[in-house]
Amino acid sequence: MCTVGYHKELNVIFKNRDKCFSTDEVVVLNPEFLAVKTEGADYFSAGINKHSCAFASTAVNTPEWTAKASEGKMDEASVQFKKENEGLVSPMIYVSEYLPEATGIDKWLERVLNSGKHFMGYNLLLCDKEKTVHVELYKNEHHVTEISGCVVISNHFRNLDHGPKKYEDYPSSFERYTAIENCIGNIITLEDVFNTLKPLHGNNENIFWRTGNFFTVSSSVIDLDTYALYYTSSPTEEYSRVSGHIPPKGAEKTFIEMSRYIDLPTYHKIERGHPFYEEMLTEIHYQIEEYHNESAGEEKRFKTLEIGAGTGLCSLELVKHEFLDLDCLELDNECCSILSEHPESSSFNVINGDAITYCKPHEYDLLVSTFAHDHIHYDKRFAFARNLFSNMKKGGRYVIGMEVLPYFSTENDRKKALFRYHNYIIEMSLQDDRVQLSELENNALKSGLDMVGDFKRHETMFEEELESAGFKMLVKKKMGPVDRTDIGGVFVYVFEAC
Q1: φ and ψ at residue 333, rounded to 5 degrees
Q2: CA distance readout (Å), 403 to 54, 266, 406, 493, 496
Q3: What is the per-residue pLDDT for 246?
Q4: What 3-state DSSP class applies to 321?
Q5: Helix ranges restricted to H, 114-197
Q6: What integer pLDDT is reported at residue 260 of this predicted model?
Q7: Which of 90, 159, 253, 427 has its CA 20 to 30 A from that of 442?
Q8: Of the candidates 241, 217, 238, 246, which has an alpha carbon nearest to the alpha carbon of residue 230?
Q9: Are residues 2 and 17 in contact, defined by beta-carbon separation less than 8 angstroms?
């Protein structure tokens, strides 16, 4: 009695596990896999192994059993369950058995289907690095659908002739399916997933995090990119992160920057929920298209350099412009690894290098950066700007998305400006129930106060350093907050290399 789904863009699977009786749910971590199960059970309900093969499942029972269980008639429900499942076994026993050794879902599924067993009704999601499939299983029948986008499943089949057929057979299953189908298109970040599955307020609470005779006992979100599981067993507690093989903080690296003070996997999954981030990306897209429209008659393709590409949040947007030949420049080794592992990485060139010294004189038609200037020390900001200029063709454009502080002139004023800006973003994040984002923003505040990796500018300061290098400002647009002048905000700039 569960809600299960896959989000393609985030590459996560999720499961809210519902029961009609209380159970103790546990997370199992060993060298081969990471999984969730009921304590004492002989199978897992969701899991991922070291080969990035993952699964989640939900049962499909008859309307007769569902009606009795929904009414709390558990003795009658138990008799009905035994009757309708006589001679059948749970497929999750076999899915779980092969979890440690599965290297791909094709062989994994083949072993389950060739077990010779007749199965209870189950919906199953199987994922690996290449694809995701939705499997329907009942007795000796099965139906496999390859998933090309996002998908959600609940407690009814779409293809096999078993279980609830219409709304009246199991209202909750159809309601949950419709509700999360409507929600999933609005999910952008990992935290959006958390807030959808475990809302803190609103009418969805009794849809996804269920109460009553069927009630939610746990919620799990599995991140296939980072081999991590986020888990909670309470609607009032935050998700805890359990990781299979994330390098420990402080591990020796050749080049480190962002990874010193930011948990990169978490950052990549939730940063797009940053206030005004989506508005910033939309404006960047618009400015690039405008530049291309102006120049298409002269040059249809733009040699493009992204400065401080990080984990690829903006890179994955830039490749949507087919006229860009994209180089992604990033100092941090861990960020470069994440960049190179994106499925879209064949569409751009990852360069592990320092933006202050990297130089291909007059190579690029277009430079793009988002939140990159923040990571350049004040002492190096003019050298940084000059080097950016040296990389550009005459008349080229530099499109920038950045966070800007209110004006400051002393060190004390700088710290006050940091507090005003970051506390505003933290408060906005908390209002939207984006707790993890507020935690990341608090880390950014601390790194700015300590001057470890974060060196935000005010407007005049930033514009001076670009103009000193030979750039001419063409566009300056504040994305937000538009109703406040005292805290800074998120801006989009466009400069021309004159």
Answers
A1: -60, -45
A2: 37, 20, 10, 11, 20
A3: 40
A4: coil
A5: 171-184, 190-197
A6: 66
A7: 253
A8: 241
A9: yes
* CA–CA dist 494, 401 (Å, integer): 9
Point out which residues pair with 243 in neighbouring strands. 228
In this structure, are residues 122 and 139 in contact, taking their beta carbons and an 8 Å threshold?
no
Residue with tokens 């106060």: 449
- Other C-beta atoms lying within 10 Å of the C-beta of residue 158: 11
CB 131 within 8 A of CB 147: yes
Which band of pLDDT confidence, cut at 50, 70 and 90, is reported for residue 257? low
Q: Which of 98, 100, 14 is nearest to 57 (CA)?
A: 14
Q: What is the pLDDT of residues 311-330, one digit of tens each?
A: 999 999 999 999 999 999 99
The neighbour count for residue 301, using CB atoms within 10 Å, is 12
Dihedrals φ, ψ of 386, to 5°? -65, -40
CATH 3.40.50.150 fits 259-497, yes or no: yes
Give the Cα separation of 2 and 218 in Å (integer).
Answer: 10
Strands 215-223 and 12-19: antiparallel
Spatial separation of the C-alpha atoms in residues 409 and 296, rounded to whole Å: 43
Task: Give me 382's structure tokens.
Answer: 């003019």
Instruction: Give domain limits for the chain.
Output: 2-243, 259-497
φ/ψ of residue 376, rounded to 5: -100, 120
Q: What is the residue whose two structure tokens read 């899991």? A: 47
Cα–Cα–Cα angle for 488, 490, 493, rounded to 5 degrees: 110
Who wins on pLDDT, 65 or 491?
491
Three-state DSSP class for 209?
coil
> Checking DSSP bridges between strand 364-370 and strand 302-307, what pairing results, if any?
parallel
Q: 420-467: per-residue pLDDT in tens?
A: 999 999 999 999 889 999 999 998 999 899 888 899 999 999 999 999
In 3D space, the residue among 155, 133, 147, 142 whose CA is nearest the CA of residue 55 turns out to be 133
**Are 45 and 37 within 8 A, CB to CB?**
yes
Tell me which DSSP letter residue 272 carries.
G
Q: What is the separation, in whole angstroms, between the first and last Cα of the chain?
A: 64
Write the DSSP string, 423-484: HHHHHHHHHTT-HHHHHHHHHHHHHHHHTSS--PPBHHHHHHHHHHTTEEEEEEEEEE-TT-
The second-level CATH assignment, the architecture, of 2-243 is 4-Layer Sandwich (3.60)
C-alpha R_g of the chain: 26
Q: 250 in helix, strand or coil?
A: coil
Domain 2-243 and domain 259-497 have a common topology: no
